[in-house]
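Working notes for the structural subgroup meeting. M.R. asked for a predicted model of this chain before we commit to crystallization trials. I am recording the input and output together here so anyone reviewing the notebook later can reproduce the run.

Input as submitted:
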Amino acid sequence: KTASEGNEIMRQLKGIAASLNVPVIVLSSIRRADRGRKNHRPMLGDFGNPAIAQHADIVAFIFRKDYRARAASGSTEKADLIVAKNPRGRAGSVALRFAKDLASFST
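Returned structure, recorded in token form:
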């Protein structure tokens, strides 16, 4: 989508959320800009369309360091829930465990 299309879609989604008084969760892939960084943790600037980060009230990423290495043994891996944008609260990370066999996260 172009930047203007992305802006319009995000504005419409925010309008729906406000009119229905419900949260709307938007899922998006991110660009592979992290390949040039030593630390591959996702950042707000990694969205292909900047309208997502600009219009979102909260932005969170799930990051599994071992996902790239594919070397993790066992059925549980470490993961981080990264809250990258939260104007009404704190931003930061929470360590999680990912159970591959159940496709679930826990603290």
